[in-house]
Every structure is written in C-alpha cells, then in structure tokens.
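Possible regression after last week's pipeline update?

I re-ran a chain I had predicted before the update to compare outputs. Posting the input and the new output here so someone can diff against the archived version. Not blocking, just want to make sure nothing changed silently.
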Amino acid sequence: MKHQPLPRRTFLTGMGTAMALPLLEVMSPASARAAARRGAKPPLRLAFIYIPNGVNMKFWTPQSDGEGKAWQLPSILEPLAPVKSHLLVMSGLTQDKARPNGDGPGDHARSVGAFLTASQPYKTNGADIRVGISVDQFIGQKHGKSTRFPSLEIGTDRGRQSGNCDSGYSCAYSSNVSWRSPTEPVAKEINPRAVFERLFGNGKKSEMDASQEQRNRYRKSILDMVLEDAATLKKRLSGKDAVKLDEYFTSVREIEQRLLSAELGAAATVPGAKRPAGIPREWSEHVRLMGDMLTLAFQTDLTRVASFMFANAGSNRSYRAIGVPEGHHSISHHQGNPVKLEKIRKINRHHCEQLAYMLKKMQAIQEADGSTLLDNSLIVYGSGIGDGNRHNHGDLPVLMAGKGGGTVKTDRHVTYPRNTPMANLFLSMMDRVGIHAEGFGDATGRLDKLT
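New output (post-update):
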C-alpha cells in the first residue's frame, strides 16, 4: 500500500516533547527531483551575527576587489577557507546612526543599538529607551507565520535592560541587537540547554519540566522520549530518508552529550559560584553550541530568522586559550601599539574560527533538492565599529555567507562607495524573502553588486 505524503510540519512527540524533523523526500507528493523541475525550492534562512569592538582592519580587508582566484582571504578570514566559495566580503558599508550625531560619547552602545535597526538610539540610561525595529524582527513579524518560531535570538553574554552601560546609554542598547519595536528590545537566550528545550519542547511547561527531570535522572536522550513515533516513522521512509534521519538523530544526540558535559563542568566550578547549567566554561564551546542550536532551528524549519551576539557591546572578555589574557575592549584601544594590534588580530581570527565551524555544519546538511543549508541561507557577520581605537562606524567589517538560494554571487570581495548605508543590504535581503519594503532605517536604496 502506498503511503500518503508526510506533512512538512510533522513532529515526533513524547512526554513534553515535540521534535521537529528535517525536510524529507516523504514529505513531498513527488520526488525531490520532480519538485526541483517544478521550481520548488527550499526556504531561505537569514541570520545576523554581531561581534564587538571592531577588528584589526589591516588583516580583515582583502587587498583587492575580485572573485574566484582573483582574491585571497586575509589572515583574520583564513579560517573560512573551507567555505570561501560561499563568502561575499563587503567593504564600505556604514552605520551612520551609530555615530554621535550630536550625542557625544557612547559609541559601543550605539554600535549595537544601530547595527540591525539603522536608527539613532535615544541617549538615556532610564526607562525611556527608543531606537527602531531591527531587521530580523521586521522580517520575522512579516515572514515568520509559516514557522513555529518567528525568530530566534541567542548570545553568550548576559543582558541587562536598565542601568548605565556606556556614557549615559542604557544597558538595553549594549545588550540587545534585536528590537521588536522602537521601545522593546528582545532579550537573547544565552543558555544552550534552554534553547535546546525550547526547540524540542511541546510548549507545556509542566510536561517539559518532567521530561527534562527524567532525562537528567536516568541519563536519557530526548530521542528516548520519541522512540515510538520514530519507529513508526521509519517504516515509511526510503533508504535515503532513513540515512538522513539517522544523521539528524546523531547530530541531536551529540549536542545533548556536549550539553551534559557543559553542565557537569559548571557543577565542578568554585563552590558557591553561580553559573547557569548548560553554559560551558570555554567561550568557544559556548559559541559552537549556540551555533549548533541555530543550525538545528534552520534545518528543521522551526524558524527562518535569527540573531546571534557573540558578545555584548564593549565586551572585555579575555581569551587566555589563544594567548590573550588582557580584556578585549581594553586592548581594542591600541593607539597603534603593534603588540596590542596583533592580539586583536588573534581575537578576530578566533571569532572567525567559530563562524567557520557553524558554516561548515550548514554546508554539510543536504536539502531535499540536493542543495545545502548554506546554499539556502544568508548569514551576515560583522561589527558596528570598524577600528576599536578610532570608534569609527564607516567602512565596517561585514561579510555575508551563503548563496541566498542562488540569488547572491559569492566568492568575491566588493567595495561600495564611502558612507553606503548598511540598511541598503537589509532591503536587498528583504527582497529575497518576498518582503518589498519602501524603506528601512536610513536606507537610500538597494545594494548593487550582489549578483
């Protein structure tokens, strides 16, 4: 007997669990090849990743424009070599609204507040915060009804919604890159365990709590909660789909094991120290786990829009694992000191290593039509400050990874005229997901040179 096609919104269920699935051939009434002939394409996913304190621009910017073999990755970007064919490095983009424009000091807070809003943050350390809706939330509100979560907001540093964090600017600006409205920041989740439970929970708190407690007590996997549904599903799968499902389950289980390791590590810290369960000691592992969550959310189509703060504005994190014990923000005020500049280069390269990890994972995930998750994504990565010593907001370090479902020509470095608004990029990205906005922030039009 021929099975009916499986609905795309199929979940494996169990106690407190609603486990989304990757796109399988059985979810389509025809083969992926036939769907491709009809022009059916996987959905486009968009992510925005923020890094603090600018970069050592000498080792970020490719020496010349070009494409393919005509351009080379500079030192900071070298870790991205395995995904170079999916990169577009963009020089010349500017966030004018991160500049003082009469408001005096506070460049770090403004650099985050303006990064995805392209709007001038109102200078206050009180409750009357105001900036503008961010591009991820604008897209999520218009485009997110087709997914379980309109958007996903993650990071590694705790956020604060009040207080003075930068020369009279509220901590809300420094801690949040996503804004649901001009006066409402969207708090990010920094605990990878919490993100995992949110992605795979059924939304019923009492059941989700009971499920997690049972798994913790008996060292069970979330996969154990859905065994019955999974066994029934496998009877309907082709050999190719079965392999794809096993690979997905293996990935989920591997993430669970790393979460458990992080939790055991947190428990072994100094007695009395407060550390949320699930947050690893090492920053790099923290970032990678959060990147895994973002990738899972995209792979299973739980959301198509995400923001990710590698760190808050002005982060003074030290990176002893790579030989930089000094605080990041402190050495970003390098005053041309070559020793400090070299340490900044190391930090910037370390950040790109974490980005490369996530992008390679996305490149390895095959979609039903034979393309990859990275092929069908646009991942914007960069900072709202160019050089940390100058606190400049023009010619920002910005790159975009992914081919946008074939709508972006990659493996290139392009240069735009001085003071080209970064919001022009946002309008161009909106177009690619079918949102044709008249304007956004301080945009003056769409970016050329993307195709």
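Follow-up from reviewer: compared with the archived run. The two ends are 47 Å apart (CA to CA). Marking as no regression found.
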